[in-house]
Amino acid sequence: MKEKIRIASGQGFWGDMLDAPVQQVRGGQIDYLMLDYLAEVTMSIMQKQRARDPRAGYARDFVPLMREILPDCVAKNIRVTANAGGVNPVGCAEAVRDVARSLGLGGRLRIGTVTGDDIMGRLDEFLSRGIELRNMDTGEPLSQVRDAIQSANVYLGAWPMVEALNGGAQVVITGRATDTGLTLAPVIHEFGWRADDWDRLSAGTIAGHIIECGAQASGGNCQYDWQSIPDLANVGFPIVEAAPDGTFVVTKHEGTGGIVSIPSIKEQLVYEMGDPHEYITPDCVADFTSIRLVDAGRNRVRVHGIKGRPATEFLKVSISYSAGYKAVGTLVYSWPDAYAKARAADGILRARLERLGLRFDQILTEFVGANATHGRLAGEPSADLPEVQLRVGVRGADRASVERFTKEIAPLILTGPPGVTGFAGGRPKVEEIVAYWPALIPKTEIEARVEVTEA
């Protein structure tokens, strides 16, 4: 058994820095590269893409990235875990296989594919059997939005990825797996942790939580003393040095920007944490109140003392559904009286929408530069503000009404308060609203499938 392994974060979301994984692979020694691409709304986007093209439905950036780093990964024996598969992990794996063969790596690379998370085709079966998939926030049954559903995926945990790694996979591609599982799986595989070793599994889960958002743990989006954080243009993504006993150190490659410190780790720990006593994943329930952080040197934070409890009998389901349409329009008003002008324009616009008989589920106005960030807590804006952006959004079930709203912004330029600019982008676009429906399903209803094949 190794004394430690180094797991590097390379992506915090689909759209993160394209060269970060390259830097992680080439900037120093690592054993694993984990790449987190998926957010809740991402699944519905990918589902739409696959509906237009059966070969699509995965993170397209992942394939050219593999073309660039696969030779290095094979040469250095770096293994990759990624949820880039989206709603089409098989198609993603096939694309990576084609890349590997084109690079002359055929026969030298094994690719693991994890499926079974997509339950879109089983929803009617579940509902007919009384598995209601009630909304975790509202308690409503899924049947209320059944006809509007766009995607439905279960959060799989680390163990299917462990199975792929145990089968020799050097690249593991999943669909909707937990962000934390991408880090936990390599640790379980390397150190042989038991499925009921709750403290160690919780430690690996928290390690995954710390690095799942990429540079957010190494100086990016860090509030504490942010002006002193060095060279964010060259920010180094975080790396976990994990030990068999469940302790680990968070660090980054030498010579990179950003910072790994106790404050930067604390800020990431509270991100999407929920109840700190019960951070629930498919693999365990981690207790964030047990975490102990120690400064272990320059850009090194040691994490230890973590406790955990048994996993629940359920898996979380991420469901997206169509919930009407929206459009957002903006205009910028200049000094003098910028805020007063923007408020007057909002009143004029609302009166015109009323006169036209347009009805919306919601009209939301924000005054950017005055109170859009802090709302009423910002107090009364100064009369000397140099400029204020009026931002008005509407949402509703009737697309035609939302479309008409988009045609009422530009007339304000010549029929409203003076000193207006900022309409160069043209009319606002009507967009479909994708809403989120979280639910639970018994683990006994879901079976992950793992396949490991040679490139």
How would you describe what is shown here?
With 455 residues, this protein is of the alpha+beta class. It has two domains: 5-117 and 155-312, no CATH class; 320-433, Alpha-Beta Plaits. Helix content is 28%, strand content 25%. The chain has a ten-stranded mixed sheet with strand order 11-12-8-7-1-2-3-6-4-19, sandwiched between helices. Strands 5, 14, 15, 16, 17 and 18 form a six-stranded antiparallel sheet that branches. Helix 3 crosses helix 4 (89-102) and helix 7 (181-191) packs across helix 8. The chain is globular, with a radius of gyration of 25 Å. The model has no long low-confidence stretch (mean pLDDT 95).
Query: Count of DSSP helices?
Result: 12
From the alpha-carbon coordinates, what is the Rg to the nearest angstrom? 25 Å
Major β-sheet profile: 10 strands, mixed
Separation of the first and last Cα atoms: 28 Å
Number of strands: 19
**What number is the mean pLDDT?**
95
The percent range for helix content is 25-40%
How are the strands of the biggest sheet laid out side by side?
Answer: 11-12-8-7-1-2-3-6-4-19
Low-pLDDT windows of residues: none
* Portion in strands: 15-25%
Q: What structural class do helix, strand and pairing data support?
A: alpha+beta
Shape: globular
Domain tally: 2
